[in-house]
Design brief:
By secondary structure, the chain is an alpha+beta fold. It is built from 18 helices and 31 strands. Helix 2 packs antiparallel against helix 4, helix 4 packs antiparallel against helix 5 and helix 11 packs parallel to helix 15.
Length: 654
Amino acid sequence: MTPANGAVPPAVPLPPDAGPTVDDPTGTGTTGPASATTLATFLRGTGGLTLDERTLIVGQALVLLEQNYVHLPLKTAMYAVNPVQRLRLLRRRLERQRAGTMPVEWLFHAELSDIFHSVRDLHTNYLLPEPFSGAVAFLPFLVEECFDTGGPHYLVTHIAEGFTAPQFEPGVEVTHWNGIPIRTAIDLNAARFAGSNPAARRSRGLESLTLRPLLIHLPPSEEWVTLSYVGVDGRPAELRQDWQVMVNPPPPGGAGGTGSAALDDGVDLETDETGRAKIALFAPQVIARERAAPAPPSPAGGTDSTDEVVSSMPRVFRARTIRTPSGTFGHLRIFTFSTESPAALVGEFVRLLDELPQNGLVIDVRDNGGGSIGAAESLLQTLTPRRISPEPMQFINTPLNLRLCRGNPALGVWVPSMEQATEIGATFSGAFPLTSDSDANAIGQQYFGPVVLVTNARCYSATDIFSAGFQDHRIGAVLGTDENTGAGGANVWTHQRLLAQFADGDGSPYTTLPRTAGMRVAIRRTLRVGAQSGTPVEDLGVAPDALHQMTRRDLLEDNVDLLAEAGRILAARPRHELAIRGVSPGDASLTLSVRTEAMDRLDVYVDDRPRASVDVVDGETELGVPGVVTTASVRIDGFSAGELVGRRRVVPSA
């Protein structure tokens, strides 16, 4: 790396004799930055797919895209692409090749990756074989976008520990990338990568300037980049930085990615891989916190001196109190829905809600690539008195998908409509939710203050579904930093999972892929409910109710302007309270002590049967419910001007 002034700052340290192997793709025996080696060194250990292995991979890709891929008609129409025909042509060319004359391996990977990228679907991927799988190409800094009256600017916001360059620190502005104006370089990069709408593609184009998971992306074409920037002294400067490759730390407990055994995954694998790389490079304290003994919960109703509420899941949640010009509110960041225990994730979310201020809450899901759809949808009930209708999903009708559903009892609800498709020619099956109605409504409302949801173009998959449900059930305002979410409205299955659906000797069309190569496919598409009922989430995503363009202060001062805007929205909305202070059974009667705020009517249900309706004023109210002999549960619905605004359910103690 050589700046314009001739000084040579140190780069990320590299092992002196690193060399990749099949089991150790960077040749260091470690993960994270300590495993870093140069891109050139890493590439010396790649290659080796035989002609037969290449042909097998293409054949399996044809099965997935032609028989399983739910969005094929949509993508063909929206982008004028024909990935199935391209795969047939590639297979035909392979049939004409010979082992000694076939093109170098990276050209094969490039073409297959381009075919998958052509459908602009981050759920549907060709996953490169070893040693690419598990490796991430990176530059030791992060570049992000902000705006002012002069338009967009691109700032360095994070720098890996141990990396220095003259006048180079968070806040410097990047002007050119390899001699290309930075905005043009991002646009060119965006055209190469998948993304379901322009906002998503541009966001991916910016992120992939410095981070590329090699499981999904080909290695960079260049071995180094030349970066032009305005230094902290205000003078133009330039540096040259080699691309590095490191082993990405694995997800804790094997959550998410391709290893989960659940059938309700909705995860953007690229964001999952990139997120873990960012933690390793720029937030190693998160990993250290996970490895340490679990911190005790924060005191009920309060936070520590830094306003942080300690979470037992630091990779999933960050909870804190924020102070804005409009008031003090809670801020709950959800980084991922990937988890091996959806119930634990939901339980921790509920606990954190109780620890945060009750007069208003900012839920921030920016950059959340998804995970468990069931976990994501189960959170919605805690924020609203309305009954949650989970987003329904459909298969595309093909003979192979019908075989899959017939062979798996969990998929049986889709079978009748798929069988009927032979008679009526329907493209898609009936629509049924993955999340059961009981799971989506088992807990009920836990938070009664106003809520605002913050999104961006890197919200994807289960996070798209969570955002759609938030908007469809009118829980609160959606505040976006981009014009749309990532628009990944599907349930994704891996090739490995599809292979496992068939018993040995069952005439399976799936075959084990060579050298840890993999594929994923969007197998069920999501539809909206509520006012937009029946609208697909894929490519359309969730448009925010209000748009906030990120500022310099947001990037460098912990989202201060963004949170101020969220606080302004919260302050303009009423805060409701509905608390059941006591339930006292009497002689064939029930007495309830209730505290309310911003409610004028309460309806009481005993064992889900209506028993009383009373007008109330703010404050303490005592309700008598006659004719009650036994009580399994009590539910109180609170109204304001005829609108349901709060709901509490309790189970009286014996």
